[in-house]
Amino acid sequence: MIGIVDVGGGERDVYGAGVLDWCMEHDVDFDCCVGVSAGAANLSSYIAGQVGRNFAFYTTYSFRPQYMGAGLVVRKGEYTDLDYIYGSLSNSTGEYPLDYPAMVASGKQFFVVATDAKSGLPVYFTMDDMAQNDYAPVKASSALPLVNKPYPVAGRPCFDGGLSDPIPIHRAFLAGCEKVVVILTRPRDFYRDPSKDVGPARLITPKYPRIAQALMNRAGLYNLQLDLAKKYEEEGRVLIVAPDDIGDMDTLTKDHEALEQMYAKGLTDARAIPEFLSH
User: At what angle do helices 256-269 and 14-25 cross, to 10 degrees?
Assistant: First the structure.
């Protein structure tokens, strides 16, 4: 069984959209898909077989004030509107519906990684936790602290999955995968700096102490999992697909040229995948 992991990264994951579009266009098939945050959204479109759908969200819809922006903070207390992105736009009557019936018919395993807001521990949702026009797990996986409120899935409030399992390779191996492609949205030799999470962690400690602790641990966990991914790559079990450079892009970048360049990098870098899978 072959798996793919998309670690997300907000707008930077237009790179993953490029990788997955290339895979769809060249009939590269994965049995098990594990997505974090924007990576879960990318993989939803991949499983549904909707080439180009993710690209539209990054390069067109994300520039709308209903999608993200300071105005939403005033109106809703959040910088991005997850209900608009994964509801109004994505529902069956939306502007660009997710083909949920095709997802179900694909027969693929799908794990959406989120973080329990109370315990700070990872939660792995599947398609059994979703339904037509109910994509709460993807919304929860994308709920960034200080950007969003926690999003409830069946009454369980959750935050972004990258806090508790940023590079979830082991979830793919536990599902039975023999080989796993890992999409990163930073260069393969980028290691997180824990000092950057200290300030945000302090801000959320009073309300979500376990999430604050997860945020403090995130850099160390990401760096450890990256080293493991490299070890597995040496063993021939993993292929890391990562951009050589991301320029000035960050999680919430709105820059047409930068987004299109990152997407193009994804299309190019995906060409390494068939050779890895053939050995």
Answer: 40
The residues, any chain, with a CB within 8 Å of residue 182's CB and separated by 6 or more, are 4, 5, 7, 167, 169, 229, 238, 239, 240, 241
Q: What angle do CA 15, 20, 21 make, to 5 degrees?
A: 95
d(Cα 123, Cα 135) in Å, to the nearest integer? Answer: 15
- What single DSSP character describes residue 255? -
d(CA 256, CA 237): 35
User: Is the pLDDT at 246 greater than 80, yes or no?
Assistant: yes
Q: Could you tell me the two tokens for 60? A: 């067109």
Q: Which position has the token pair 């009557």?
A: 93
| Sequence-ordered alpha helix ranges (H) in the chain | 14-25, 38-48, 53-59, 70-76, 82-83, 100-106, 136-141, 169-174, 198-204, 209-234, 256-269, 273-278
First to last CA, the chain: 13
Q: What is the pLDDT of residues 31-72, one digit of tens each?
A: 999 999 999 999 999 999 999 999 999 999 999 999 999 899
